[in-house]
Amino acid sequence: MRRDDLQAQRILVTHVRGFLGLPAARACAAAGAHVLCHDPSFVDAAARAAFKRDEPNLMPIAGQTPAALASECGPLSCLIANHDHPAIRAPFAPAATDELQAALQALCVEPFALAAALVEGMRVRGGGKLIFVTSAAPLRGLAHYAPYVTARGAANALARTLAIELAPANVKVLAFAPNFVASPTYFPDELLADPAQRARIEAHIPLGRLATAEEAGTALAFLASPAADFFTGSTLPYSGGWA
Prior knowledge:
alpha/beta, Rossmann fold, seven-stranded parallel sheet
């Protein structure tokens, strides 16, 4: 990405401290975007100030609800909905229903509500992008993770159907579906520091390695850029050939 590829773009990255939030935000800012960052911790002014000191090119915001975020951000060029939730390994059983509801709330209902709050501003400015960070797991299925995979699959379906509905307003919608990307949420440093664990994980990846968080952030910045404006309605696996 070049310094001016996202010049004059206003981008909101949610849950910036988790999953792919920080690498995506940094990559967008490096390409010239004005990047607004949401995180649950940012209800605290001290947390926002500390983040701003650490990341001077990013702008933390206090809003938490969809309405508050829409009001604080104003019209946006792009939303990167970086919602995350633990992928809990458990058998398919009646007790999993509660976890399914929690996963659906975090990974589908909340992105749905935020997109609904922001899309009118995109219509007014003549277009925009909604990029949902989801997972490649629903593209293959993953035993013992039914609640998580079901919720991520619902988010993939949300991206597809919104793309059709919002295309006349020039609002593009994508699902970016990673797996095997180093991140604090799913493949943290402490897991990957164990050579045996890392080798076991990488044995499942056709490319034979995990992606770095920075690689994934650069990919998201590209999708947010005008160079990717003809992409819409797609679920884009980012998994080294696994899906």
